[in-house]
Amino acid sequence: MSVLVLGARSDIGRAIARAYAAEGHAVQLAARDAQTLEADRADMALRHGVEVTLHEFDALDYDSHDAFIDGLPDLPDTVVCAVGYMGTQEESEADMVRARLVLRSNFEGPANMLGLLASRFETRGRGTLIGISSVAGDRGRATNYVYGSAKAGFTAYLSGLRNRLAGKGVHVMTVKPGFVATKMTEGMDLPEKLTTDPDTLARRVLRAARAGRNTIYVKPVWALVMLIIRNIPEAIFKKLRI
Amino acid sequence: MKLSGWGRYPVADCAQAAPRDMAGLQAARRNGPLIARGNGRAYGDSAMNRENTVSMRRFDRMIAFDATTGQLTAEAGVLLGDVIDAFLPRGWFPAVTPGTRFVTLGGMAAADVHGKNHHVDGGFASFVDWVEVMDSEGGITRAKPGDALFDWTMGGMGLTGVILRLAMRLRPVETGWIHQTAYPAPDLDAAMAAFEAHPDAPYSVAWIDCLGQGAALGRSMVMMGAHAPLDGLPTRFRRMPFGPPPRRLRRMPVTLPGFALNRLTVGAFNRLYYRMGAARAGHSLVPWESYFYPLDSLLGWNRIYGRRGFVQFQCVLPEEAAREGLAALLGRTGQAGQGSFLAVLKKMGPAGKGFSFPMPGYTLALDFPVSDKVLSLMDDLDRITLDHGGRFYLAKDARLSADMLHAADSRAAAFARRRQDSGAAGAFASLQSERLGL
User: Fold this and answer.
1) What domain range includes position B312?
2) Nearest in space to B15 (alpha carbons), one of B431, B351, B398
3) Could you give the 3-state DSSP secondary structure of residue B398?
4) Quick one: which of B64, B257, B376, B380 has the most CB atoms within 10 Å?
5) Of B61, B85, B90, which is closest to A43 when you measure between CB atoms?
6) A58 HSE (CA, 13 A, CB side)
7) Over the stretch B309-318, which tens digit does the pLDDT of each residue have?
8) 8 Å CB contact of A46 and B63
9) A39 to chain B: which residues are within 8 Å by CB?
10) Measuring CA to CA, which residue among A109, A114, A113, A156 is closest to residue A133?
11) B412: in domain
12) What pLDDT, on a 0 to 100 scale, did the predictor assign at position B270?
């Protein structure tokens, strides 16, 4: 089986790529400046004796996406989209150019690529699409609604794809990680009980994909946390700072 | 954050960075004197710096492997256990391994670790072809055996610079099994005689029952081992010559109260261990995991020593003074009534270079739960070591004094001088290096 990881430089993308390589799958690593991932490529190939290839990929260069897929050694069996960009809420409020970058990086770009891949998988009648979305998309909050709304869009897009492709042999899984100790969250004060690390996340993603799960919260406690957050009446919610 | 070594003593609040790349590491360097930290398996404060502890665990990539020479090139943060996982199934095993596989390759180089084969093969440095070190200015030098930088870095406890990458040689093996021969030794003379009688055994080590006193002083199980060849395996093992699939690791669930290990329980454990060993004396076939890493199967075993943590004493005594010195060390330990849960004796081979620990003679390692009484016992053990011309293993140390180190090891002054001259003294420092005046 071959696995394409979009956004392979991210800590989550890299951890998932390593986990698939460890299971003996060929891995295609896609990112901007892909050649700078050579050390990771060599590491995965060396440790696990699998074929690992590097592919130049810019999530925001939509016109290049078809050619990107054509340039892969083979149409992968599984695709993991770990593309994302958080920025900061302050930046996104102050500067709409920054806000648009967040919206496009977390929604438009990933949606464009997964849409193209979904159609090819549908034609083939087989494949798995895994999208790394976020709990931030479950409800817009003052502290990160730009990022959150983009992820909400991505979550809805994935659920739509899942609905469209059910019965066509193509499975779509939505992953909502919650807090993960990564580059993106470095320097933030994350509560230990709600935080996971990329390798644990990767293990859970692989297990869930094998089990054919539809949507997963990586740490089960997040399902409860978000259930509560989603159900707070708006009249109260709008006054909260969470 | 609160950091400690494997012994959980001492504990200090240390600012820790975990860079992902060279740019991040260079930024950490500009924050002031730093110490690189691997997987935190040094027992004491070797990899702790209050202002600037730099975790190397994210530099964890294997870069190249040459199957004709067994040379593996890897980043410093790769775990030895990952090397075994990747290469044992292809017929390669680390040429030198310490008693745990949860160490980083950088940490192994920094401590110039030794294994059960030291008496024939020497330490880790003998199997390292080059090491890349970042200096005080951020420059990167690839040092080879014979270069002063190489010799001082192997065993230099991360104080010559940050170890970034290295090339190490693995040894070819036909199986993951060890052919073990155990000899019960009723006393110290018998244990030493067993080592002397088997100078060519590829691996050798003795577990001492520390509470054996008087005529039973040094009572131990001496265990020799060799990699089993494929045709030495029973047929049922030959289908999977690299051992059974790894067992699930158990984790020590709680920190035991400090009183859990006392003279009675340790005595009982040691007697039991000796009896079980004596009953198993003779030949047996042991999987690599339980032979080399008996304690790794219980993750977090350091928590059995209670809240205050534990300290390890490890010295090496020169050949000629070994018999007398070991008797004095074990005698003093027994007299103090401080059972050492783990007491390991091993004959060592050729001395390492630079500031490396090993030298020909006998090394003794003892664990104790921390208490005021134990700390004063260790001062006595230091003096006995000094009186017998021995020296100390810094990877285990948490409390040695600068005076004692410098009195026992004339190389310490040369090492400190070199650090001054090269600029390393102002750029790389640990709580240990400050305590020991290095």
Assistant:
1) 177-401
2) B431
3) coil
4) B380
5) B61
6) 7
7) 999 999 999 9
8) yes
9) 61, 63, 75
10) A156
11) no
12) 62
Same-domain status, B85 and B158: yes
Q: Which of B172, B205, B222 is the last residue of a domain?
A: B172
d(CA A58, CA A51): 22
The nearest alpha carbon in chain B to A181 belongs to B18
Q: Calculate what percentage of chain B has a pLDDT beyond 70.
A: 91
Residues B88 and B154 in one domain: yes
CATH classification at residue B86: 3.30.465.10
What DSSP element (H or E) covers A224?
Answer: helix A220-231
B65 in contact with chain A, both atoms CB, cutoff 8 A: yes
Q: How far is A12 from chain B (nearest CA, A)?
A: 14
Give the pLDDT of residue B190: 96
Write the ipTM.
Answer: 0.85
User: How many domains is chain B built from?
Assistant: 3
Residue B61's contacts (CB-CB under 8 Å, 6 or more residues apart) are A39, A40, A42, A43, B74, B75, B78
A40 touches chain B (CB under 8 A): yes
Look at A46 and B82 and tell me if their CB atoms are within 8 Å: no
Looking at residue B238, its pLDDT comes to 87
State the pLDDT at residue B263: 57
pTM: 0.91
Segment B278-302 shows an average pLDDT of 81
Residue A130, amino acid:
I
Residues of chain A scoring pLDDT < 50 = none
Q: Which residues of B touch A42 (CB under 8 A)?
A: 61-64
Q: Which residues of A participate in catalysis according to the annotation?
A: 147
CB B65 to CB A183 under 8 A? no
Binned at pLDDT 50, 70 and 90, residue B246 comes out as low
Q: Given CB atoms, is B215 within the 8 Å cutoff of chain A?
A: no
Question: Does the residue B406 lie in any domain?
Answer: no
CATH code for residues A2-237: 3.40.50.720
Task: Give me the residues paired with residue B324 across strands.
Answer: none
Sorted by where each begins, the domain ranges of chain A are: 2-237
| pLDDT attached to residue B237 | 84
Whether residue B431 sits in one domain with residue B292 = no
pLDDT of residue B247: 57
Q: Of B123, B151, B172, which one is at a domain's C-terminal end?
A: B172
Which of B90-99, B235-244, B252-261, B329-338 has maximum average pLDDT? B90-99
Domain identity same for B246 and B385: yes
CATH of the domain at B221: 3.30.70.2520
Phi, psi of A127 (to 5 degrees): 145, 160
Burial B401-434 (b: 16+ CB within 10 A, else e): eeebbbebbebbeebbebbeebebbebbbbbbbe
- Domain shared by B27 and B100, yes or no: no
By Cβ distance, the residue of A40, A47, A183 closest to B86 is: A47
Check B62 against A183: CB less than 8 A apart. Answer: no
In tens, the pLDDT along A191-241 reads 888 999 999 999 999 999 999 999 999 999 999 999 999 999 999 999 998
Q: Looking at the domain assignment, is residue B410 inside a domain?
A: no
Q: Residues B206, B344: one domain?
A: yes
Contacts of residue A49 in chain B, CB cutoff 8 Å? Answer: 90
